[in-house]
Amino acid sequence: MKLAIFAATCAFLLWGAPAFAGSNPDFDLDGVGDVIDNCSVAPNSAQDDTDLDDCGNLCDADYDQLGDIGITDFNSFRGAFLTASDLHKHTQPVPGQTVGIGDFNYFRSTFLGTPGPSGTTAGTLACP
């Protein structure tokens, strides 16, 4: 009994009450459990994934699908800036909104990194 109370207390402290739901925590509190969430660090209940690589748009600036975010991805982003390209939107989507400074700030923060994380592709090249 004491062990069960201790385990529940630890889970509450680690994940918080709303985020802990049995064995499938929801770190970003978007209503999609981390093991099936295609962007487990940013709330994205719609699970938008324009390029269909199982890595959600809010966590994926790897447009060339090479597993990292580099110069070819930058050139792709630069060409889409101020357009309505869904692939290059990394902020919460708003109908009719163009790729803008918020999207650029996300891209800049991930440049030379890797996409993700995504519970749906854990351990794969597409979105670690």
- The radius of gyration computed from the alpha-carbon positions, rounded to a whole number of angstroms, is 17 Å
- What would you call the structural class? mainly alpha
What is the strand content? Answer: under 5%
Q: What is the number of helical segments per DSSP (H or I, 4+ residues)?
A: 3
End-to-end Cα distance, whole Å, is 37 Å
Number of strands: 0
Mean pLDDT, as a whole number? 82
Helix content: 25-40%
* Main beta-sheet annotation: none
Q: Extract low-pLDDT stretches.
A: 1-21
Topology pattern, helix = H, strand = E: HHH
What is the 3D shape?
globular
Helix and strand layout, with pairings?
Elements: H1 2-15, H2 71-80, H3 101-110
Can you offer a commentary on this structure?
With 128 residues, the protein is mostly helical. It has a domain at 37-120. The chain is built from 3 helices and no strands. The chain has helices at 2-15, 71-80, 101-110. The protein starts with a helix and ends in an 18-residue tail after the last helix.
